[in-house]
Write a structure and sequence with these properties.
The chain has about 375 residues and is mainly alpha-helical. It is built from 17 helices and no strands. It has one domain: Na+/H+ antiporter like fold (Up-down Bundle), CATH 1.20.1530. The protein is globular and about 50 Å long. Belongs to the auxin efflux carrier (TC 2.A.69.2) family.
């Protein structure tokens, strides 16, 4: 019983930290304080998007990725990708069941499939790569998925974005025309329509570019020795980037707290949608993780090392990524609803991060 209580306290600490910073953001957004109003949140979000997040991902990826680590932990990026894909499918199921407003569909899918940035409490050696790869997936897969699903024009990033929207439901005329052609022709038309409306250049966000640079630095040994490490001649570059990147999570959390004020006053997020996200995130996704990781172990795809298996399992049981707040703020759609979902998700994270890790430790022991 005492061990369970200690585990609950340990798992609650990072969650309480997030909630405390969120409350500070909420306070700063109050009308009487007005330090984090709509304009301030927009400008801070731009800094997070262009500076903080690329620095965070770049520093962690360059430091953690080597050729040897990729060979040893080759299954981890695949496992992470599976969490995103399964989460996306669960998000679609939530959408089909709860029928939320169209502009919130991307948010719901994103909340179901995005890994967090604060899961490094569970083993720095393995999780450094996990966090870095998770951030890359967030700013490629999740970012573009939410961008495509958003029905609102992207007004905050005119320099890198356009209001490319892909309708989720065809018009009546299109449906009548589709019935006149075969299934294969309909599929080809849909693919052509998607390729015309989706700007592939948006895949290369500042964070994605930073990840590519970091991979080059980490995998090329002479360059790595020049920049990474305490005795590296240019180690000050890594230290500076790391220092800037450390501001990403606090800044993003403040933005979510500021947006929460509007969400508490009025939110378009249905209660059923919030419950659906929580069930998908904290029940169905961890169950899927157990099946995948244990199946991979039975097939000799991963080693029997308990800590490695534990980290792979944890990836399925953590709350949604704080970066979702940045993404919704960029798109100008669902900011307050995102904050409401995050409040519930992180409020219940202590229970999830106590129950599931306890079960996982028993499973891999």
């Amino acid at each position: 019983m005492l061990k369970l209580l200690h585990l609950f306290i340990t798992s609650s600490k990072p969650v309480v930290e997030i909630l405390l910073i969120t409350s500070v953001g909420l306070y700063m957004a109050l009308d009487g304080v007005n330090l984090l109003g709509p304009d301030a949140r927009k400008y801070l979000n731009d800094i997070v998007f262009y500076v903080f997040n690329p620095s965070l991902v770049g520093s962690r990826l360059a430091d953690s990725v080597t050729y040897e680590s990729l060979v040893k932990m080759w299954f981890m990026p695949i496992n992470l990708l599976l969490t995103f894909i399964i989460g996306s499918l669960l998000g679609w199921i939530v959408i089909l069941i709860t029928k939320p407003p169209s502009h919130l569909r991307g948010l719901i899918v994103g909340c179901c499939d995005a890994d967090p940035e604060n899961c490094n409490k569970y083993g720095m050696g393995y999780v450094a790569l996990s966090m870095a790869m998770g951030s890359v997936y967030i700013w490629t897969y999740v970012y573009n998925l939410m961008r495509v699903l958003s029905n609102s024009p992207i007004e905050t990033q005119p320099s890198i974005e356009s209001s490319c929207k892909v309708p989720l439901i065809s018009s009546k005329e299109e449906e009548e025309e589709n019935h006149k052609v075969g299934r294969w022709d309909r599929f080809k038309r849909r693919m052509v329509s998607l390729s015309e409306k989706v700007n592939l250049s948006t895949i290369f966000t500042p964070t994605t570019i930073a990840a590519i640079i970091a991979l080059v630095i980490g995998l090329i040994n002479p360059v790595r020795k020049l920049i990474i490490g305490n005795v590296a001649p240019l180690g000050v570059l890594q230290d500076s980037v790391t220092l800037v990147g450390d501001g990403a999570i606090p800044a993003t959390t403040l933005i979510i707290g500021g947006n929460l004020l509007k969400g508490m006053r009025s939110s378009g997020m249905k209660r059923s949608s919030i419950i659906g996200v929580l069930v998908a995130r904290y029940i169905l996704l961890p169950i899927s993780g157990v099946l995948i990781v244990r199946g991979a172990y039975k097939l000799d795809l991963i080693t029997s090392e308990p800590l490695y298996q534990f980290v792979l399992l944890i990836q399925y049981a953590v709350p949604p990524a704080m970066s979702l707040g940045t993404i919704t703020q960029l798109f100008g759609a669902g900011e307050s609803e995102c904050s409401v979902v995050m409040l519930w998700a992180y409020g219940l994270a202590s229970v999830s991060l106590t129950a599931w890790p306890t079960f996982f430790m028993w499973l891999v022991a």
